[in-house]
Request: fold
Amino acid sequence: MLALAAIFLLLLTPVAMVILHLLRPRLDKYQWLIAVLGSFLAWPMVLLVRLNMPHSVTLLVWQPESLFPTSPSLLIDNISWPFALAMVSLSLSLMLTSVARLQPKPSPAPEEPSPEAFEPRPAEGETAPAAPGLAAPSLAVGAPSDRSTAAPPDWRPWAANLALTSLGLTAVLAGNPLALLLAWVALDIIEVLILLTQLQGSASRRQAVVAFAARMGGIAILLLASIRLWANGELLTFGAISSTSSLFLLLAAGLRLGVLPLYLPFMHELPLRRGLGTILRLAPAAASLVLITRTATAGIDSAYTPYLLALVALAAIYGAASWAGAADELAGRPYWILSTASLAVVAAVFGQPQAALAWSLVCLFGGGFIFSYSLRHRRLLILAGLALLSIATLPFTPAWPGTGIYQWPAPAGQPAAGILVINLSLVLTHALILVGFVRHALRPITGEYRPARGENWVWIVYTLGLVLLPLAYFGIGWASLPNPAELPLLAWLGGPVASFLALLGWFLLDRALRPGIRGQISFLRRSTSLFSRLSRFFSFNWLYSLLWKGFQGFSRLLALISRILEGEGGLLWAFVILALIVAFLRQTP
Reply:
């Protein structure tokens, strides 16, 4: 029941924030504290759920049983609990780190100067005495202490953050396809509503609708898989997934993630940057990654394995290269999800649930850290190093089970040369992921930030928000470390080899970008031009653009035919078409 209580707490906290705003707008300056309190209380609830695993909670009992043999329920086990802890940890981390980005909106300036404006100002270096009636100290980093002319920060992104976390928590804890379908639909509706209120321009809105349609396609495939299970007399639960239905489940999750087929509806980052933009990306990803991990328990039919591996390896290489070459971590956010999710899909194809879980948590914990790392300080580099260590798949680190994606010798029925090429592409993908992580973590280290007087606590809260994610990931990893005696040689070599390649790639990139090297400008221009061309090709946007233009042309043709038939000569044209159809049928033998 603690999991259910955490879901309702995260859902009721935004409701309380809305009610407080409607009844007492002057108390909006406390909305951040309310949101942090809601996230903070939900975190130990999910943590304590592990003491009673596995168990399930029925949400609703649907009738009749002949039509609904299973009702929506939650399942807490070794797969769903790490995802649940990742979701609440991500939410709490985003709320704590948002203290460094609080910028109150300035209120309109008064038409006439107030009497205080004619009072003598203190000399430089002195502090003005506090006057009664001034606003509370602001939470904004580096902002002046006097906020009497500033409005409270916008609290709506915090409320949306908690609501998305609640729905994402419901999705990752779903105990059967029916509960997952409902959670997916709720997440997609909330996401598209937020996007449509933030995006400007018809092109961006069309991309949001296309992304929503792709998500609906994943829901349709999951519904088809559920119907197939029901028709075969199997239970609609995730407790026992057969290999016949696992392919449909994998396609449903892969379509929602943009892996199967490779498709990124938003090639440019959304206007929602950190905070809400991060949870808006990672919550739907977590809802799909949990299905991939559950699919890995059954594996995929070997007849489809070569084709799936080829498609997913292409998506992984493209996503990792784009992530490493992105302008910053936020511009590379969709590519981070694409590359890490592709590695999780590879693990599911090979039937490695622990590896799929490891790469899914890399996506959530590693991505949550780098996307929240907005303020840079030399003393925080140790936290970035800790986060990098957690995703390096080195022995005895949290992502160590992720090396299960390396298969050698080749599985039965698979060509050895093909598996070798797949292994090399996976190692290269992991190395590029690490190169991009280091590059984005070290990007703007120049200079130090000094908070305003009395606001040193901002650094403490911000640091706690950052350190929460790697510590939680290390806790999950150490609680489920594999038995070293049962691991193959590749499990010990995969992480170090990828880390060495990442170090070598970072060294070469650093030398290429170092000033004073002959031919640097021309080399960078040629590399950028070549990468841009390859990126446009392997993203398959040209193919989707052709399909979209064909669809638009077909719709215009239908509109033209409709106008012709609805006009004054519509009846005559109907008779002509009928005569042509009759003549064609007579000539058909």
Remarks:
- Strands lie at 55-58, 73-76, 105-106, 150-151.
- The chain has one domain: 2-100+154-513.
- Residues 2-100+154-513 form one domain.
- The mean pLDDT is 78.
